Every structure is written in structure tokens, then in C-alpha cells.
Amino acid sequence: MSDPLTSTPPASATQSLASLAKADGVRFLLATFTTLTGKPCAKLVPVEAADALQGEGVGFAGYAAGAMGQLPRDPDVIAVPDVSSYTPLTFVRPGLGMVHCDPQVEGSPYAFAPRVILRTLAEKAAAEGVRLVSGAEVEYFLVQRAADGSLITADRFDDAAQPCYDARGLTRMYDHLTAVSDAMVQLGWGPYASDHEDGNGQFEQNFHHSDALTTADRVVTLRYIVQVLAEQRGMTATFMPKPFTDRTGSGLHMHLSLWDGERPLFPAGDGARDPYGMGFGPEAYHFAAGLLTHAPALHALIAPTVNSYKRTGATTTASGATWAPRTASWGGNDRTHFLRVPDAHRVELRGGDGSANSYLAAAGALGAGLDGVRRALDPGDPGVVSGGPRLPRTLLDAVHALEGDDVVRGVLDAVDPSAGVSAYYAELKREEFYDWHNTVSLWEVDRYLTAV
Length: 452
Prior knowledge:
Elements: H1 17-23, E1 28-34, E2 40-46, H2 50-56, E3 58-60, H3 62-65, E4 77-81, E5 87-88, E6 96-105, E7 108-109, H4 114-127, E8 131-145, E9 151-153, H5 167-172, H6 174-187, E10 193-196, E11 202-206, E12 210-211, H7 212-232, E13 236-238, E14 252-260, E15 263-264, H8 282-293, H9 295-302, H10 308-312, E16 330-331, E17 339-343, E18 346-349, H11 358-374, H12 395-403, H13 406-412, H14 421-437, H15 442-448
Helix pairs in contact: 4-7, 4-11, 6-7, 7-11, 8-11, 9-11, 9-12, 11-13, 12-14, 13-14
């Protein structure tokens, strides 16, 4: 992330959605937003209605959509398109496009909408002269269902003890991986690598960094593209953090840096004091300290499911490593840490996983990091694994940490502090934990059936 933004600039806000779509041969638009749990919701709008969509938005019953803070009696959520996010998807389906939307209710930005939350945080940061630039490593498994319903690797030959980077595994999935990469090329995202990850059946595909909102949009779009193209080849693409007990889990690693316009704020510069030898200036160390300080509560946003803690709590995998942090430590080019420093231009937040809502993850990282900057926090000595806060061991632990952290709760409450988004989210995740806890598992049967 050492270069200024180089990806294709977004569509001009002065261009109409209809003209953009018609120029690309798009006949239908997915007007898209996500719930708090990351579910992509959309209506399919014909291009003939694109002007009405751009001017008035399109209505949804928020309660039916899912985790949107509504009851059946509440007024419609109106998805208002952000024209700059328009994306043709004609390689997925002829004539298809997508536009990301900022939900409103009764004419006001909706406090429970993740994209609105991130936009609000980004605008507040911009008022302070700061812009968050982010990149995302999108990891996933390609699987199928066996006759008994269990998950199996889609590529039956992908059974090596250490499959990471295996050229043969990449080649067998060539058609899928290149289709996804070609899609990102066409969209101007600047994809630079696809690789076989550490687990059998696991892959990662990367694209160039951008501002935080654009990158979060692209994660949502890429997940959609990956899943649809996988389905067309008879596979299921899953971003579930830990679909296999004995394999490495899927992360959503975020590469983060602060900029003032086109000027990066992280590098120390000539003659600047650099107490920890990372090549950082003060803002970078303060930002890192904020992420470390709020790491337990941040996990409720970046590792937001019961299954997330099967990944971070793993002690080993078939390949010999978990690649998932258990303590809020930081260090140089060391992938065992919660916060890795690959170079002087960025930090890599490695605690997030594939179930994270990309908007909330970016918003949480921005809020936590900027708290460190505002309070001039110090990250402490790098590499001290036992020195940082212990990361939550379960989703319930993460909820407790969230409820005790004013800064991360403030991220969720950024749009309207009186709306109660953080309390709603905490209760949502607490109930998710209890739903899982109330289900009898095979582990319990094996352990307790004849224990006494």
C-alpha cells in the first residue's frame, strides 16, 4: 500500500445511473445494501426505472430483510443508490449490473445500515483531515455437499498435507479463479494475485487498495461474484470462518493506512523519531495502539459469529499452523500477530474473518485506530505476545467486551446515538450465541452419552 490510489476512478456523480447502465448494455440493476450481519439484500430494477431509482430509491420491508433494527410495523427502508458505486456484472449474467445503496428511513440516513455507519465515520475523519485507505484479503473455500450432507472439498484431488501455494491445485481450479480475476480486471480493481491458501479447498483473491468505503463495497461485490461463478460450476463458495475442524480458517485481513489527501501519514519521514524501528511516524504508532487497545471489543465486528471463535481458538491444523491470532500483539513482518507491520506504509489487521460485514469491520478499525491517534496512545514493545489483551474466546466474550467499550459502541452508534444500534447489535449477537448453545452437538453426544 505504498502507492497513491491507482484503481479506476468511480463513476462521476454527475452521470446518471441510467446512462451508465445503458452504455454497458446493462438491462437490470441489483440495488444492493447489507444487513448488520452482512447479508446482501437487493431488488432487481429494470434500466427503464433507473432514473426513478436514482431519484427516489427503492423500498424494502426492513424487518423482512433481517438484522436491520426494525419490526413489522416500521416504515420502509429506502435504498438510495450511490451512483459512484455502479458496477456492471455482465460477466455474471448478460445485462446485469449492481449499485450499492445508502438506506434511509423517512428521509434520514438509517442508523442501522452498515454502509451509512462507515460513511458517517469516514466523513467525520475527513473533517479532521484524515482518510482511511484499506485493502482486503478475501479468503474462501470451494466445497460441495456429500451424500450424507457433510462438506467435502470441491476438488477431490486437493488432499495434500500442505496445499498452500500448490501450483497443481491452482491449475485444477483455473477456470473459476481466472473468471473471478478477469472480472476484477474488467472492473478496474487491479487484481494482483490468486493463490491456494493453507487449507485444502481454500483460496484467496486480492485487488488493489482504495478508500475504505470503496474497498468495503468491493468486498461485498466480490463475494457475490465468487459465489455466483462457483455455483455455475457446481460448487459452493463459502466465507464461513471455519468450515472444517482440522483446516485453517478463512480470514478477512485488512491492510490499513491513514492519508491526508494523497499524502501518506504513516511513514516516519526524514529525521522523524521512530521509537520501535518500524519506519512509522507518530500517527501510525498511535493508530496501531488504538487497534490493540480496542481489540477485544473490535472482535465483535471483525469476528462476528459463533464459528469465528473456532478459527481464533484453534490450537493447530492439518498443515501445522492456524494463522489466526489469539492475543492482541503486534510486530513486524510476522503473521502470528494480531497486528502485522509488513512495511512502513501500513498495518495488517489479521483478526478479522470471512463472516465479517466489510462496512462494520472498516468502521470499527477506523474508530478504534483514530481513538489511538486522538489520545496519542502508545502500542508498547512489539512482539510481546503476552503483553496485549487476550482476544475473546467466544462470541459471548466479544459481546461483553463490546458492551464495555465506549469507543467501539460509539462506532455502531455513529449515525444517531439515540437509535440504540450498539445495544441492538449486542443483543443480536448474544442471542446468536445462545441459539448455538441450545443445540445439542455430536461432540456432546460422544463426550457425555456414557460419561456417568
